[in-house]
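Check out one such.
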Amino acid sequence: MPRTTTDGRMMTTYTKAPGAPLTERQEARRRRILRATTRLAAQGGYDSVQMREVAELSEVALGTLYRYFPSKVHLLVATMYDQLEQLGGQLRRKPNKGLPPRDRVVDTLLRAFRGMQREPHLTEAMMRALQFADRSVSAEVDGVSRITTQMIFEAIHEDDTVEPSTEELAVIRVITHTWHSSLISWLNGRASISQVRLDIETVARLIPEDAPGGTAGEGSAATHAR
């Protein structure tokens, strides 16, 4: 399964020609914008992210910021992509090998949840942006969906050259929806961490026990994640 990169996905928001890659200077500016957004969102959530403040903190003109990101929703969904991309890199550096595929998925999503749990205001801002996103943000939302799919797919298959089937992609979509819903419920105080874990463990049962890429019977992700 090909790896997703910011070059082909999110960077096309600001280019001189459709599909053209960002220059080194443009990419550095974009990184400053995303860091400023992350900082503001982590301090106070969705409402704390104001385009003018992002521009000032990242040291770019307001008009330039809007050329990169047409709205706050675009900006926060791009920030979520960035956060997931970093998380994916961390997971690859410390893979949860030795577990059956189902348990690897549970372990991966619980590790992702713990990462988001550490910055609840930032997580709240990103999830609200996803909920508010309309068709104008479809490219950014699709990017988040693809990188989340990749994260779950890599947890199922240690061999990332395997191509997912239509059925497997459907299962991954349901797992993703459950994960997002659990995050929102936890943010709203309607679900405890143990309930989030139970929901993820339950939906992971959709993954066939004989899915390739794991060693059955070597402990559960719930045990490893605690």
Q: What stands out?
A: Residues 1-19, 214-226 have pLDDT under 50 and may be disordered. The radius of gyration is 18 Å.
